[in-house]
TrEMBL record:
This is 4-hydroxy-tetrahydrodipicolinate synthase. Pyruvate binds at T47, I206. PANTHER family: 4-HYDROXY-2-OXOGLUTARATE ALDOLASE, MITOCHONDRIAL (PTHR12128:SF66), DIHYDRODIPICOLINATE SYNTHASE (PTHR12128). Its EC number is 4.3.3.7. The record marks T46, Y109 as: Part of a proton relay during catalysis. The active site is at Y135 (proton donor/acceptor), K164 (schiff-base intermediate with substrate). Catalyzes the condensation of (S)-aspartate-beta-semialdehyde [(S)-ASA] and pyruvate to 4-hydroxy-tetrahydrodipicolinate (HTPA). It comes from Nonlabens marinus S1-08.
Amino acid sequence: MQELIGTGVALITPFKKDGSVDHSALEKLVEFQIDNGTDYLVVLGTTGEVVTLTSEEKEAVVATVIKANDSKLPLVIGIGGNDTRIVVEQIKKTDLSPFAAILSVSPAYNKPTQEGIYQHFKAIAEATDKPIILYNVPGRTSSNISVATVVRLAHDFENIVAIKEAAGDIVQAMKMIQYSPPEFLVISGDDMIALPMTLAGGAGVISVIGQAIAQDFSDMIRYALNGDVQEAYELHYKIAPSIDLIFEQGNPGGIKSLLAHLGIGEENLRLPLVPVDEDLRKRMKSFLDAYEN
């Protein structure tokens, strides 16, 4: 799965002031990624506010991304949830031919045991031949996929090829890298520790900040994959303040504000999410002004 090594970005879903999807801004965002070094695109993920999109809107968002991308970058689609049966049904009815892989988040709210998590992903793996990226994000799901469960899934199912690891725990990530099969990819889902995870043997990142600071962030990961540690850390410390800024008042409010300053979409979100406050908005603008000079 060489297509999944490097920098993927979890695309936002831009909205107009009336709450409808801003497909023109989405096209612009995809083109920005293509022009600025991003390696692959992730559509319908957490950052895309997927839980607030209707089925029709999801289909339209996917169609816009596919058209704007024009087969230039590999695509990953998010299909997950806390009802295994429904997730399996969604996978079976979705045309997966444009996608390199499925990103599927561990069930939220239910708080399954490790055996429950294993059985959930077993059902998903058996429902499709498409490569699957596990998604571990305990801060949103309230349960952690243990190293042992990840290793078990990686060994038992050939099409479970990677994990987006977003627990923010570098030790856990290193154990996943150490004990999983050599071909299994451990991908950072945490922008701030993407560099050390990659240097420890990870496969790169699925990033939020990477869609705004696209060229430098993707270059940072390329340096890390090539073993150019000094160059990578120079970019990391240059970019790091923006990572704190975009997550200060939640995702994707922060990244939408930063992208708006770049002229890509507006800051509109769907409730219960709201835009960042004016103080943070000004600090983001100050960061960008200093960054670009």
